[in-house]
Write a structure and sequence with these properties.
58% of the residues lie in helices and 7% in strands. It is mostly helical. Among the domains are: 8-38, no CATH class; 51-110, no CATH class. The chain has a two-stranded antiparallel ribbon with strand order 1-2. The longest helix has 27 residues, at 60-86. The protein is elongated and about 85 Å long. This is PiggyBac transposable element-derived 3-like protein.
Length: 145
């Protein structure tokens, strides 16, 4: 089994039965150290796999975008759970991941685009620009009279 070597100073002495010499070996505590620091990544991966956004596309960046979107939503849900735990809410009051993703999707769909402010009719703007350029037919006809 290959595993990364953590900066653990735990070294034990073990006698080899054949040679009767002591060898310095790393202790098994490294596995616990590794698992302690990798728990969040494994949790995130397993939660993403529960309700993955399944989209089929030939474009690679679509899959990447939806994976990042899933990561963001799951991370927000974990923060939401931590916030609920700090506020002493019961497990029944905390929203499940599926419901959280559904409400998030509904909120994003309902948000829509912002409406632009209407400053007035476009016609008035065009008349003013024509007057400045000297191309307004109404002004030319009045000046000829």
């Amino acid at each position: 089994m290959l595993k990364p070597i953590w900066r653990s100073q735990n070294i034990c002495d073990e006698e080899n039965d054949n040679e009767r010499s002591e060898e310095e070996l790393e202790s098994e505590d490294d596995d616990g150290d590794y698992n302690q620091h990798m728990g969040g990544v494994d949790l995130l991966d397993s939660l993403i796999a529960l309700y993955r956004t399944k989209i089929r596309s030939k474009k690679w960046y679509h899959r990447l975008f939806f994976h990042f979107l899933d990561m963001i939503v799951v991370t927000c849900w974990l923060l939401y759970k931590r916030h609920c735990k700090c506020n002493n809410l019961s497990d029944a009051e905390v929203m499940r991941l599926y419901a959280f993703k559904s409400y998030t999707a509904q909120g994003l769909c309902k948000s829509g685009r912002r409406k632009r402010k209407e400053d007035g009719p476009v016609v008035e703007f065009q008349v003013i620009m024509r007057q400045r350029r000297g191309r307004d037919p109404l002004l030319q006809s009045q000046s000829q009279m």
